[in-house]
Amino acid sequence: MSPATLRGAGSPILLWTQPQEVESAALDQLRRIADLPWVHHHVAAMADVHLGKGATVGSVIAMRGAVSPAAVGVDIGCGMAAVRTNLTASDLPDDLGSLRRAVESAIPVGFAGHDTVSREVDRLPLWQEFERLTPAVHARLSRAQRQLGTLGGGNHFLELCLDDGRVLGDELGIAGSAEQDVPEGEPRVWIMLHSGSRNIGKELAEHHIGVARKLPHNAGLPDRDLAVFVDGSPEMTAYRHDLFWAQEYARCNREVMLGLYQDVLRRFLPQVRFAPVISCHHNYVSAEHHYGEDVLVTRKGAISAEAGLLGIIPGSMGTSSYIVRGLGHPESFRSASHGAGRRMSRGAARRQFTLADLQAQTAGVECRKDAGVLDEIPAAYKDIDEVMANQSDLVEVVARLRQVMCVKG
């Protein structure tokens, strides 16, 4: 679809959904963002846009010489990873309960961390930079190390999925004769996960958001949550160092979890082999060039959709997810949505739905079906297929996945 244009703010807002589909508080929030004097050209709002803290979730903001830490969010580097396997649906056992329990045993969820730090984690270059982070987190080294390779809670997940059986490009191929043994149209098994920078990312974000709020040049902002750092300041230098460190921590976190997940699958299905990893951030900052200027692009709930780049757009725990290829649309700052996006708050979901609703909406999926995940019920999210239709000019679909097992914190 062509984006709708919202005016009445300092910069235009391009919206990849109909304005009436977005809650009024989120539209007001977008206008406050667009009023910031550092915004470059326009603000892009993705098809899954909804109200967030400070900046709207599903917003892409390019700034000249400035960045707002709240526009990144507190889960710096949150994102996705997915891997296609050589397994097909017929290779899976009828009951996936044992596999789910094994994954939950191998990968801590919620607030938990690993009991010990593995040799793989201990050797990561990340720790050589830890003492250069803000002193506010120096006491958190042990916790950061033990939480690397863990899931977290909320909407973070580990899934086992089946694709739609379409033939994919060579970039997703798996070396070996077994690739040719799979009949065309046979659903292939994927593993997929969603997580970020855990508690260390949250602490870094909250520290820098607090610093930004106190800076004199932010005193007159209509929303202090949109406070910015500006180029050339020591605060910007410190934030960019910690920000990019946390983004790398998040990437490593997903990489280690994938390795643990793959080890579990090998124990259950020794014949398994894995294609190259598809990985993407969707809460992050990137230095890019758009509309004739070098800018800092904040994607809060959005992925890069550079032409030809593979990405992941998940639905909820009972609906479809998509592997996509970017089309490089300039008006979206070469971006796309990060998922379905919530259509109601967690509290509203808990008030409106019952455990019977959760069980019905996750039928056929091996997952938790208790009160602890009721706020993640599929109906609390927007229709992922409608979201995908609204951004057909931003990405093309490579594969459609449906989950058969889901682990949540």
List keywords for this structure.
409 residues; alpha+beta; 7-stranded antiparallel beta sheet; 6-stranded mixed beta sheet; 17 strands
Task: Set down the secondary structure blueprint.
Layout (H helix, E strand, L loop, with lengths): L3 E3 L6 E3 L8 H11 L4 E12 L6 E7 L2 E2 L1 H4 L6 E10 L8 H10 L12 H4 L18 H7 L9 E7 L14 H4 L6 E8 L2 H16 L15 E2 L3 H35 L9 E4 L1 E8 L2 E8 L1 E3 L5 E4 L6 E7 L8 E3 L8 H7 L2 H7 L22 H7 L4 E14 L1
Parallel strand pairs: 2-3
Antiparallel strand pairs: 1-2, 3-4, 4-12, 5-9, 6-8, 6-10, 7-8, 7-17, 11-12, 13-16, 14-15, 15-17
Q: What would your notes on this structure say?
A:
The structure is a single chain. The chain is α+β, with helices and mostly antiparallel strands and 409 residues long. The protein contains 11 helices and 17 strands. The chain has helices at 24-34, 69-72, 97-106, 119-122, 141-147, 178-181, 198-213, 234-268, 346-352, 355-361, 384-390; strands at 4-6, 13-15, 39-50, 57-63, 66-67, 79-88, 157-163, 188-195, 229-230, 278-281, 283-290, 293-300, 302-304, 310-313, 320-326, 335-337, 395-408. Strands 10-6-8-7-17-15-14 form a 7-stranded antiparallel β-sheet. A 6-stranded mixed β-sheet has the order 1-2-3-4-12-11. A two-stranded antiparallel sheet has the order 5-9. Strand 11 (283-290) and strand 12 (293-300) form a beta hairpin. Helix 3 packs across helix 8 (234-268) and helix 7 (198-213) runs antiparallel to helix 8 (234-268). The radius of gyration is 21 Å and the shape is globular.
